[in-house]
Specification:
The protein is built from 6 helices and 11 strands. By secondary structure, the protein is an alpha/beta fold.
């Protein structure tokens, strides 16, 4: 166990977060308001170490198992998108499988990934949808990034997020999801409710690890 302060500041809603759990590597704090669990900045990896960890992942666009995994977001999103929509796959990684799947259904998908497909100009454009699969748990500044993605959406557009949700302290102790050293933010359902209220968005919680948020029409 490591020595830790009793409180931290939630990087999502900025409320006070209390100590939640510690393992041999780092402490975790849960927000009193939005219930997100986070790892404070002093325990984050360096960019070089983070990139090295990502390079170990093997997710290929033609991997049937990986496609089944991504279909948990792709299928409900496809049901809601108008034909020939234009969107952005944010944090797509080296093998942008979700973008490939959406393109196969006639949608135009741009890519932006800090390490593998850098395309920051995409964040100054407007899109009918934005996806981020297995991304938000890696964000050191989740509110800043998510607000930026939300601002990229056209009225009526969809933000699709895939990340496993934290439930309670007991299940967290043995949760494999926290063993990835690049995971530093663990959203709860309440975290997404908080975002929906902030954005005046329509929220759909789909399954255990997918949410869709729709921007209001002008």
């Amino acid at each position: 166990m490591i020595e830790t302060p009793a409180y931290s500041r939630c990087p999502l809603c900025q409320a006070t977060a209390a100590w939640f759990y510690s393992d041999e590597k780092r402490p975790y704090y849960q927000c009193n308001d939005c219930l997100m669990v986070h790892v404070p900045a002093q325990w984050h990896m360096s960019p070089a170490a983070e990139r090295a960890e990502y390079d170990r992942h093997e997710n290929h666009p033609d991997d049937a198992g990986y496609r089944r995994f991504l279909s948990r977001l792709a299928e409900p999103l496809l049901e809601r998108l108008p034909a020939a929509s234009q969107g952005l796959d944010f944090g797509c990684g080296p093998g942008p499988a979700l973008a490939c799947m959406l393109r196969e259904h006639g949608h135009d998908v741009a890519l932006h990934d800090l390490y593998y497909h850098p395309n920051p100009q995409a964040l100054s454009q407007r899109w009918g949808f934005v996806t981020a699969t297995e991304v938000v748990e890696h964000l050191a500044q989740p509110l800043l990034v998510l607000d930026q993605l939300w601002s990229c959406l056209l009225p009526g557009g969809w933000l699709g997020l895939m990340t496993k949700r934290v439930r309670d302290q007991e299940s967290f102790k043995n949760w494999h999801y926290k063993s990835d050293p690049t995971h530093i933010c663990y959203f709860s359902e309440q975290s997404f409710i908080w975002l929906a209220q902030r954005w005046d968005a329509e929220l759909e919680v789909i399954g255990a690890d997918v949410v869709l948020l729709r921007k209001a029409q002008d």
